[in-house]
Amino acid sequence: MDRLLLKRIYEPYDEMDGERILIDRLWPRGISKEDAKLTTWAKDIAPSSELRKWFCHKPELFEEFKQKYIAELRHDGQKSRLLSQLCQLAEKKRITLLYGAKDPVYNHAVVLKEEIIRKMAES
Fold it and tell me: Is the pTM of this model over 0.85?
């Protein structure tokens, strides 16, 4: 889906990013709010603090992390509402999900993007 992109917040801003949504619970170090050029900060869609700390970006824990985060997205009322809002926005505009993690493969943004695509395909 070309309307839904992932990008590290440390990568340069591009006008083609569309709506820029930070999906981390914690503000990324070294980035000013002005430089971030955010549309919104959706910190409540990030994994719970407990899950984030447990995972600690260890690739060997990623599959279990993925399942636990998906469960949070589907069963936590606030996360579920935010997920629906992101789906609705992605139907109308290009959005870029911004994250701070160093690893582009083993992070929650990848899981969130997959879940948005799955949910949009259902409707």
Answer: yes
